[in-house]
Amino acid sequence: MKKINLVIYGATGSIGGSVLSIVRSNRKKFNIQGITCNKNYNKLIKIAEEFNVKKLGINKRIKSTVKELNKYHVYEDISSFSKIYDSKTDVIIYSISGLAGLDLFHKLCKSGKKIGMANKECIISLGENFSKLAKKSGSIIVPLDSEHNSIFHLLNNDHGSFDSITITATGGPFRKLPLNSFNDISIEQALLHPIWKMGKKISVDSATMVNKALEIIEAKYLFNLEDNQINAIIHPQAIVHAMVNYENGVTTALLNKPDMRIPISSLFFKFNDSSNKAKQLNLEDYSKLEFYPISTKRYPAIILGREVMKIGGLAPNAFNYLNEILVRYFLKGAIKFVDITALNEINLEKIFAKNRNIIKPNLSDIKNINNWIDENVYLGSI
Predict the structure, then answer these.
(1) Exposure class string for 15-50: b at 16+ Cβ within 10 A, else e
(2) Which fold has domain 4-143?
(3) Counts of helices then strands in the chain (DSSP H, E)
(4) Cβ(90)–Cβ(73) below 8 Å
(5) Spatial distance between the Cα atoms of 381 and 335, rounded to a whole number of angstroms
(6) Res. 50 pLDDT band, cuts 50 70 90
(7) Residue boundaries of the structural domains of the chain
(8) Residue whose C-alpha is closest to residue 6's, from 97, 113, 80, 81
(9) Cβ atoms within 10 A of the Cβ of 378, count?
């Protein structure tokens, strides 16, 4: 049996760990051609040793000072990471955080490869461009986050004309926190997601619900939807990941335990394959499954996200890029938790008071507006 040739961009993070867990359980089915990391080269070397990987990408120039890297073909700097995959590559996992790899993802869209996408930021920044590039080259983009992966599979079942989709959110760590306590939220509190173990940036995004706002925009571009076809609700148990609502009144849903190996394994195996080793869902273990509307007083990012989605053009990218900057400042202790969304809105007004919103931006337009934001981001008093 032919092995699946695999490249993992972002092998040392939580998504990379889930991918490696699947490979570890099915070693005879995979050949890992290349893996990358941002800075954690020690962990990357351990992975390379375990899985006999030859190509390593590290976003830091350290090869000359780390002798353990001498036996590998090392690509230093993210700008060279596109050289890691080749004509023999079957599947690419893209789990580099944020917009650091925007150029790389742009190239991957033109590669003609099957790409497991665990980065909503690049999709949102490229907007309609990514799907056009992928369609032209024959690339297949499979979303790996649980909500969009669920929609991806639900829409592939022919149940008739659908009306809308619904994605779920746990509500993060502050679903029940009194609103008058939000001014005092600490960094440590914001990182304590009740269900998922994730990196710092996405944990903060989940706490502000910017993550869900971004997922709403992402769904528009992934599935070519109208704004009013995308719904989101609070579901604290994280068992129902998404639903598709049909015109005949029927709703289909995808349920499973919170385990990233389930959506990831659908890249490699049939959807009902048991090769991911995930535990079966037993609904008797749950006394109730709850669903609530999202409070926009508690999560104002949802309103802001929908506004930029409606505006379109460069606005979703600007919202996305500003959030990346503001979360970084929050994690440094420079701004408050509540400032993240509030400052995003203020900066958006300033950006488009000074810059024209290009409705169909290309990659150069996106980079130009991001450079302008870097130079002019406002962090003053609200």
Answers:
(1) bbbbbbbbbeebeebbbbbbbbbbeebebbbebbee
(2) Rossmann fold (3.40.50)
(3) 14, 11
(4) no
(5) 10
(6) very high
(7) 4-143, 148-311
(8) 113
(9) 14
